[in-house]
Amino acid sequence: MWVTKEVVQEQGQQEQSSSNTTLFHVLDPRVFKRQLLDNLCGLATRVRMLAKSPAGAKLLQDLALNRRAMLYFTQPSTRTFLSFNNACHILGIRTSEIRDRSISSEVKGESFEDAIRTFSSYVDVIIMRSQEPGRAAQAARIMDSIERPVPIIDAGSGSEQHPTQALLDIYTLDRSFSQRGGIDGKVIGMMGDLRRGRTVRSLCYLMRSYTNVRLIFIAPKNFSMRDDVKTHLNEQEIAFVETDCLSEVLPELDALYVTRMQSEWDQEGESNDIDLSQYTVGKKQLAMLKPNGIIMHPLPRGPEIDPIVDADPRAMYWRQERNGMWMRVAILLKLLQLEESVS
Amino acid sequence: MWVTKEVVQEQGQQEQSSSNTTLFHVLDPRVFKRQLLDNLCGLATRVRMLAKSPAGAKLLQDLALNRRAMLYFTQPSTRTFLSFNNACHILGIRTSEIRDRSISSEVKGESFEDAIRTFSSYVDVIIMRSQEPGRAAQAARIMDSIERPVPIIDAGSGSEQHPTQALLDIYTLDRSFSQRGGIDGKVIGMMGDLRRGRTVRSLCYLMRSYTNVRLIFIAPKNFSMRDDVKTHLNEQEIAFVETDCLSEVLPELDALYVTRMQSEWDQEGESNDIDLSQYTVGKKQLAMLKPNGIIMHPLPRGPEIDPIVDADPRAMYWRQERNGMWMRVAILLKLLQLEESVS
Amino acid sequence: MWVTKEVVQEQGQQEQSSSNTTLFHVLDPRVFKRQLLDNLCGLATRVRMLAKSPAGAKLLQDLALNRRAMLYFTQPSTRTFLSFNNACHILGIRTSEIRDRSISSEVKGESFEDAIRTFSSYVDVIIMRSQEPGRAAQAARIMDSIERPVPIIDAGSGSEQHPTQALLDIYTLDRSFSQRGGIDGKVIGMMGDLRRGRTVRSLCYLMRSYTNVRLIFIAPKNFSMRDDVKTHLNEQEIAFVETDCLSEVLPELDALYVTRMQSEWDQEGESNDIDLSQYTVGKKQLAMLKPNGIIMHPLPRGPEIDPIVDADPRAMYWRQERNGMWMRVAILLKLLQLEESVS
């Protein structure tokens, strides 16, 4: 995830170093390590606990009061925008936003390179989301070539990457299984439009950091997981099976990660042909799920999770959403080299 | 106003409890009590006084520095938006805004329920304004059904309700008559498009908290006050008369509340047929107004108040506008249970 | 620059008064004095130095934590918006923004006068940018006529004025020549679309504060500097020459201020007929520039500066851009009468 300028320090003999990796940019989720994931999850939990008390919230608020962030979101997004904006606010970071390219100076013909460099002139970190794949990586390369670079956080680029979503998903699994030995050894089902859903794709890549995880892909034939991910899983010797029938596998799942039909990527309405009722969670499915199994969803949801499920204690998606904010606070703390302040 | 989750505590024997009512949501202005109105007016004044000194402003600034608000304004609004945004800023509250539905995740088909719940995941209070009536009440019901609810403030829903405007109007009357026994016993004229103006409608409903108030409705025949309000006034035994002639009644008014033609609600240009000059305040009308009478207007204004009136000390609308910010600070303090901090 | 409400205090016998001029509005750049320019440049440098340390950044952050600014930008702008927004944030100032007139109450027919007065009700300073010339001056006149005025900062009005750009350009020249006796006596080239570029026009007017400056205008015939500026220079006895050939004059320049073709003001595509390659800086031009000469540009740039130039230590435009933020912090400190706090 932290490709460029990443420095991995070998852990010394000190007992309680809360951190042993420094980050610069947050880009490709595939390049990551277990240590860093555990470190970020721990940091997110510390921050979440601190924020519960007024004194702790005040402490967090003071940490980065003199830092400034830029949210450059040229692709529509409510959830990720608000999650990052409020993560900044929790740390006292002041934010500037561009959410509509038509009001930007790109209308005067400025190059992307110059626009990003301009943003970096004014702030300490750039959080960006774009329609086009690779934009955040391109911005990171620009930063790496100048004298006064600032970190780039990819908040979603095209249909391929959404690294901070992958991290918050890991955090949600980690929290949910904290009394049961963590993520290692768990059976995780992923259901829905696996072919086009970037969140499940990223999550698969992160699985190699955990031992004995078994994945079950549940999808209509035409929307099954793509070969690139399956090849990766085979190489990493991560067990997975595929099915188009939820009820067959539901009883063995520790976690069911549900996704919506990504019909915005349809070429000719192909998602309309699917009998979605087969890939839906409702009362009947709840009855078949383990008592300590959990249901996740990256949200927004369509009809694939009946709102009746919300009241079930195993429904984890609203907490997952809020975990996103805490994980983003953790990421910002790490990028701004402030994590020692909360250890 | 504070329907859901309202808890009215019976006032004990303590002498100086600055508060005896807790609020959760701010919705229907019709359900309110004199005690709460007086409480909020007092709170607004304390905050206004504090803000005059740098030390007081700093105290206010620190009160809610670790709180976060969401301004969800899908209906165009400058005044109410800025008033709330700056009220938040006075208390140190950090704000996130959505002011254009097209950039929100509703474009991905998310339900209103899920969108509101998502907002509530990230912030401590949601301030919302919408074109459709009842949206804020609906959001409040959603909050009341979940585990971690946050307060909803209705900043205007459709053509019916605008509760915080009604409160700031009360505050302006209360301040203006503070040396003359308060609102009780005053003669209040309301002029203009009474049929469709939501501010005068709300204000009428609040009048039952005051004794011996007399109302005079001054409007063209087709734009007179609607029957629902008049029925309410009759039930509450609040005296009112109706006229279409300002000069007849102007000399007896303690306050003249002027409103603009709400031509945006016209079906077929009916407001064009009115001789607006009959419902206008200028030099001539100023001469007929009591020396201590006041002129109010919710703003924005059209031709119904000549700018020449602005310089007259009885013109209260600019102060009324600023009162709106202080009243909103008072409301936020109360919702966040911080009012004791400024007593 | 600080026309209205300007109070120039005669300098007393005190030794280290960091300031001797108070400002109210920031409007016309033509009305200014050397003392004030030096004062602002000094202030910008003190702020810039302070911000380098966490303690200094915290000090700045606390200075105006209880102040509020409004950014009213009805003309698209990224750079100036971000520069001002972050300048506010450096001082702790809370910001509200309107960047799209369609969401404002002007859709309800409110007058410009009432809109500006409304903004002033809520904040301590209004920073505005508009398409129409003279709007900021008009806003300042409104403020001067009311009881509770707030300062207006012109962040660009039409094609004529951009006073804070002129100030940041002066600051950049002043910094760049700080080891060489300052701006006095330097040879400054201005190149490109001089007829329509407001930045070079403003800069010319500021030159009368410096002694023995020589200006060289380098432009295609149809885009040469307009007569009003040249008349002013003659009146002030500021030496200038005109040429359409860069290479002839490049070796004698201490600074080359490059500007882009302002093709957005074209009547019938007249800028297409120009051979822009003659007015471009690249490797070849760098070779001809003095070792301590500098290259400036207000940005955004088009093809007139090859990106290869960025790496040359004489390329000053990225620093110039960042200088803009510091100069705006200095201006805000001065308007809010806080400059003594950093002296």
In short:
Chain A has helices spanning 34-50, 54-63, 79-90, 112-122, 135-144, 163-176, 198-206, 227-235, 246-249, 283-288, 317-335; strands at 7-8, 21-22, 68-73, 94-98, 125-130, 152-157, 187-191, 214-218, 239-243, 255-258, 294-296. Chain A is an alpha/beta fold.
What does the secondary structure layout of this molecule look like, with pairings?
The structure is a homotrimer of 343-residue chains.
Chain A: E1 7-8, E2 21-22, H1 34-50, H2 54-63, E3 68-73, H3 79-90, E4 94-98, H4 112-122, E5 125-130, H5 135-144, E6 152-157, H6 163-176, E7 187-191, H7 198-206, E8 214-218, H8 227-235, E9 239-243, H9 246-249, E10 255-258, H10 283-288, E11 294-296, H11 317-335
Q: Based on the structure, what is the oligomeric state of the protein chains? A: homotrimer
First-last Cα distance of chain A: 23 Å
**Strand order within the widest beta sheet of chain A:** 9-8-7-10-11
Query: Biggest sheet of chain A, open or closed, and with what strands and sense?
Result: 5 strands, parallel
Summed up, the helix count of chain A is 11
Low-confidence stretches of chain A: 1-20
